[in-house]
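### Sample
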Amino acid sequence: MAFTIFVTAPQLAPAGLRILEAAGCRTILMRDGSSTAEVEQTLASEPVDAVISRTVELSAAAIHSCPTLKVISKHGVGVPNIDVAAATARSIPVYVTAGANAQSVAELTLGLMLAAARKIALLDGELRAGRWTRAQDGVQLAGRRLGLVGFGQIGQRVAKVALALGMEVEAFDPGLRGPSPVAGVVLHDALEALLPRTDVLSLHIPLNPHTRNLIDAARLALLPRGAILINTARGEVIDEPALIAALRSGALFAAGLDTMAVEPLPADSPLAALPNVVLTPHVGGSTAAALEGMATGAAHNVLGFLTGQAPDPSACVNPQVFSSNDKSPS
């Protein structure tokens, strides 16, 4: 049987498209990758079996409008753009491509850490403006303590490089029990125990009701004065006004942010005016290798489910759908 796969973007990495083509699928790409109206119109008018979801919203109305829809896979790991509750109500599993972009995100994390510590963006701008400004207050990372909030595949990769740089590394992840998966990393049972010991704080957590504004004014105040904060997770896990206040006051030395509470970043955002902030436009997973990994992972997820070949159950964010009906991931 030929399946119809709808990709909510104008393109998918060729490796992913080849997998779908080899399976005889009909693939629909969007004309406008930001149009929720186009998503809803396509799902209401086409016999779509599966959606590979990029960044545009996949609403409850869109999900309910397509009676043939059987499975959704996110091209990535964050699902705030997908109405998972609506999918669950329809007994539609929602998969993610966990780990596909982990290396690329880890590398950007390290890049932001180094750029923030040594004021690379600021000094580059000074030199291009004709000023030979030699900052004397850069931070050497060797000997400093890196605190990781979230210690999955990304955090573990960051930890290994940080240890090689000569940093001490500690982490908090409520989902981890037992010994650390990375030798030399100390695990904490509570976030409040980690923060006072952290010179560089790096966030690697999903956005959910428990993590929204997790790093607020009170927790920022637990960091040693002059700490650095790095966020390549989701902008909403930080209380942004509290972060801006800490950067302005000098409580934080610097921040490196790939994600912000509002994206795209508004032109009048105070973050853009702060000289001690390094900003990138949510590009942690935007390398050819990461895009290919996410595309192939998403293609395997939807085809695996549609053909009964069981995608990795741990990649499903709403596994309860398998106990509430006759469907099975196997």
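Residues 4-100+288-322 form a domain with the Rossmann fold fold (CATH 3.40.50.720). This sample (Hydroxyacid dehydrogenase) is used throughout the tutorial notebook.
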